[in-house]
Each structure stands twice: as C-alpha cells, then as structure tokens.
Amino acid sequence: xxxxxxxxxxxxxxxxxxxxxxxxxxxxxxxxxxxxxxxxxxxxxxxxxxxxxxxxxxxxxxxxxxxxxxxxxxxxxxxxxxxxxxxxxxxxxxxxxxxx
Length: 100
Fold this sequence. Notes:
mainly alpha; two-stranded antiparallel ribbon; 3 helices; about 5% strand
C-alpha cells in the first residue's frame, strides 16, 4: 500500500482568544505546530470551516466545550478520522494507514 498523496492531520480545538505566548506554550507542550489562516485568504479557511461543521454535528454551536466529556471528544475524533473519503473512492483512510 502506498501513502502517496495522503496527508494525516491531528486537529486541536482551542479557545479563540489565546495570546501568542500561550500558543507557543501549548505548541511546546504538545510537540505540535500552529498554523493560522491569513485574514483575507478565504481558501485557507475552507478545511477549518468544514471541520468545524462536522464537529457541530455532535456538539451544538452555543454549547461550551468545557461541558463535553473527554470520552465524547475521543468518540467524535474517532468518527471524524474514520469517515469515508471522497478522494479515496469512499474508502476509509485507516485502510491506507500503515504503522511502521
């Protein structure tokens, strides 16, 4: 199996009003990088908006994420990561994922 053309991502949902130093601290602790869309580059926000739409199928928009149990967040993560992908002929991404 080939992983060519498949991009794996992990998504973190964070509060909107974090300072630059808070983002840097979180990135350091999670060993992750933060990427931000440019303010007027709408095409950069498309995947972000689509992911938010998928998450909102499980959690209503006005509901605080503080009220969502961690186990339910893991369930949502599992559901989103195991959705059939149109660009994979509606196959699941995990069928192409190989642990080395």
